[in-house]
Each structure stands twice: as structure tokens, then as C-alpha cells.
Write a structure and sequence with these properties.
Length: 330
């Protein structure tokens, strides 16, 4: 039996990961905030350890407790991250500094850890030109989130722990709340398309990403970085087409020119900023929406992790739509 430490277990990817790891026989210890809703984890029988990743003292108390109970952690998967923030300093504090703290405490209290899996993002590389493919060596993020993830990767590489870094593309599936907006709009009869330019997009269904992360625990390819997509590349309408097909809808297609999207992003950011809130559409999001290509190399993931995607876009969207409908989201 392998003891697995998980951060972000109450989040979108982390909750799916916790459930699958439990099914596969891992003993899961989830680091959770005191304010988190842990009902699902507790129903699975997962041990919840209360600590703030940004509070070294509370985190150290958890590791001291594990040491006193003589509980050895065999592997750790760091899923927790901040994806939206007002400025880079906030991203830095949560995504970089907290990762450093977690690594330091693992090195101190769990030096026998066999693998540290860091869930990064394709945003750490940044996009490329249309028709091109992002390489693992590319390091040109276009958002503060991407920059924070790139810096966090450097922290992981500089640690003494054997590690694997996974860079997922856009992840969709049950419980996801951002890409869900497209599902919701199409269910209401509107299919938005951003700009008239050509784009190459990539996606991965959450269960396939979970498979990549669990395979990373056992790979012999230590201290390596991998991309995670379903291996296909799509035009900008592909996801929406799959959604409307599953919903049996014929929504009105609304193509929004990039200058208008840019203007809306500025207005939204200003309006929400005055209220002390984070805008769903802002200057950073606009940069990602207009990017020409998010295609990336997957050969290394296939060969060294032994990963084979199980979900096509259509199959993954079907499972996602079913969940949204069953749970009253659409």
C-alpha cells in the first residue's frame, strides 16, 4: 500500500484524482484548508489534514504529526494552485513560495519520498504561432499565471526530491467551472466564437489527466517534464461543436471580433476591479483567447509514461454534459 499526499484535493482536478487514487488502492492524505468543503473526500474515507499551504507553521505542524505517527509518505502530487489573481505578487506567493515551502518540509520530514509530482500548466510555456508546435524547452509565458507556474517549476527542479512535472493543456470534465461557461451558453442557445483568425487548440478530459498523474508516480523517467493533452489538435469551433451535438442544439453562432473582445476585457477588468473582484474576462484572459496555437509535443508522454488517451473530445464532452445535466448546472 502506498501513502499518497495530495494538495488541491477539494478542487476540480484534485477531487477526481483523489477518487481514482483511492480506487487504485492508494492511501490518500489530503492537505486541505480549514474553510474547504471536504464532504466528498470524507465520504471516500480519505484522511484530511488541515493546513494552509501559505502558512508555514500550520503546514509544519501537519508534517510533525505525520512524523510522530510514523507515517511515511511515499509520493506527493501538488495540484493546488491559484489560477486567478489581481497581480503577479499574489500568484508568486501562492504558486511559487508555497510550493517552495511544501518542498522544504517534505525534504525535512519525508526525505524518503520516492516521487514529487508537480501539476504545472501549458501556460508556463506560452503559445506559439499558427501551424507550429510548442516544445518542452519553450519558456515564453504570456500571463502572470503562466509566469508563476514557470517559476514554480524551477523551484521543483532545484529541490533534492525526485520529481516529475506535468503540464496539462485546457482540462474539462465534471465539476469544471471555467470552460463550463461555453457549455452553459450553448445550452441557452448562443455559441460564441472569438475572432475570425485561425487557431489550434488542445484539450484533455480530466480522467485522462488523472491517468497521466498516477502513471508519473511509477515512471522510471525521474526529473522529467511532460505535456498532457488528448493528443489531438482542434480548431476554435471543435469544443462547441461537440457540446451542441451532445445537447442536440442548434445555437446561434456569434463571432466576436478581437478588438471588441479586447474592449470588453478592459471594461470588465475595470468594473470588477472597482468592486474589489476578479473579472472573468480580463487583459490576461484576452491574451490566451487570441493565441494562435496551443499545440504541443506528446511523444515523450506516450513513450516514457506509457499514456494512451481513453477519451476523445466527443466522448469526454458527452460524459461532461451528462454530469452537468444530472447536477442541474445546465
Amino acid at each position: 500500500m502506498m501513502n499518497l499526499l495530495l494538495t488541491g484535493g477539494t478542487g476540480f482536478v484534485g477531487s477526481h484524482l483523489a477518487e481514482q487514487a483511492q480506487k487504485e488502492g492508494y492511501i490518500v492524505f489530503a492537505l486541505v484548508r480549514k474553510s474547504s468543503n471536504t464532504k466528498h473526500l470524507q465520504e471516500l474515507g480519505i484522511t484530511c489534514l488541515e493546513a494552509e499551504l501559505t502558512d508555514r507553521n500550520s503546514l509544519e505542524q501537519v508534517f510533525q504529526s505525520l512524523q510522530q505517527q510514523q507515517i511515511q509518505i511515499h509520493a506527493a502530487i501538488h495540484c493546488a494552485a491559484l489560477t486567478k489573481a489581481k497581480n503577479f505578487q499574489t500568484f508568486q506567493f501562492v504558486n511559487v513560495t508555497a510550493t517552495q515551502t511544501l518542498l522544504n518540509l517534505l525534504e525535512r520530514f519525508q526525505p524518503q519520498l520516492s516521487r514529487f509530482i508537480f501539476v504545472s500548466s501549458l501556460a508556463a510555456c506560452g503559445p506559439t504561432d499558427y501551424g507550429n508546435t510548442i516544445s518542452l524547452e519553450q519558456a515564453d509565458p504570456i500571463t502572470n499565471y503562466g509566469r508563476s507556474k514557470l517559476k514554480a517549476e524551477a523551484v521543483v527542479r532545484n529541490s533534492s526530491l525526485p520529481h516529475v512535472i506535468v503540464r496539462p493543456t485546457a482540462v474539462y470534465g465534471p465539476k469544471e467551472k471555467d470552460i463550463f461557461t461555453l457549455f452553459e451558453l450553448i445550452s441557452k442557445g448562443v455559441f460564441p466564437l472569438i475572432g475570425g483568425h485561425q487557431q489550434t487548440l488542445t484539450f484533455i478530459y480530466v480522467q485522462d489527466l488523472v491517468d497521466v498523474l498516477l502513471k508519473a508516480i511509477h515512471t522510471k523517467a525521474v526529473d522529467q517534464t511532460f505535456f498532457a493533452t488528448d493528443g489531438q489538435k482542434y480548431d476554435k469551433a471543435a469544443l462547441g461543436n461537440a457540446v451542441q451535438g451532445q445537447l442536440s442544439k442548434k445555437p446561434f453562432r456569434l463571432t466576436i471580433p478581437l478588438p471588441i473582445v479586447k474592449g470588453l476585457a478592459f471594461v470588465s477588468q475595470t468594473f470588477f476591479g472597482l468592486q474589489g473582484k476578479l473579472a472573468p474576462l480580463n487583459a490576461e484572459k484576452y491574451k490566451e483567447l487570441k493565441a494562435a496555437s496551443w499545440d504541443c509535443e506528446m511523444d515523450k508522454t506516450y513513450h516514457l509514461l506509457g499514456f494512451t488517451p481513453k477519451y476523445t473530445l466527443e466522448k469526454g464532452v458527452a460524459k461532461t454534459v451528462d454530469w452537468y445535466q444530472e447536477n442541474g448546472w445546465i
